Amino acid sequence: MTPLPTSLLDGQVGHTRFTPRHHSLRYPLLSVLLDIDGEHDAAQAQTGWSAHDHGDGVDLRSWVTKQLQHADVDVSLGRIQVLTSPRQFGLVFNPLSVFFAHDSDGVLRGIVFEVSNFHAGRGIYAFAVKDPDATVLRFDCRKDFFVSPFNPVEGHYTFKLERDETRYRIGISYERDGERVMTAVHSAQIETFSRALNRRRQIALALNTPVTVAAILFEALKLRLKGLKLNAPRRGTVDTQPWRS
What we know:
This protein is an alpha+beta fold. It is built from 5 helices and 10 strands.
């Protein structure tokens, strides 16, 4: 997984819940992959992305470095890229942003998953990449951040990440008490941003965040109608500290 030019990812997200009620959802998602230090890149300037929407909102490179130090990544970092959905019309919401941290030779050394909830909270899961040549990366950790009101803050995550120059796929499995609760998959085609952004996609990118939020809220309503109970906390749950193993 070497660094790529500023790219557009045209794909979809699917969730499947297995317990206590079976439920599936799917919605389209446009994302961008770009360098966190590339503010002056012409293509990146078209995305609407801002470093202030991630990490500590101040020094994103130092923030990523600090997260990976807690994951025992002690090499000097070169290019750091983020896969995310940028702010549009003043709105930003990223259930999951992925940071790819490479060394000065372009070798992938670490991954940071930044998870956001509807209460302005962000949780961090950071990992060292032990085999940079692997075509599939797998990571495991405990769940320690409140995301969905239908799940408590406990359990275990498994991440499976695949990416080359044209395709991206991440699958997340959530288990609790030895039982698979739900899975989430984001799959997309990768295209160089300057070529991919035609008028149709300009409109779709502009509407990306409102569509995503509306889809999540609509599916949450259906889950409530199916009788799923809510788990506290309902508000707050801001966690911007480094992930703790």
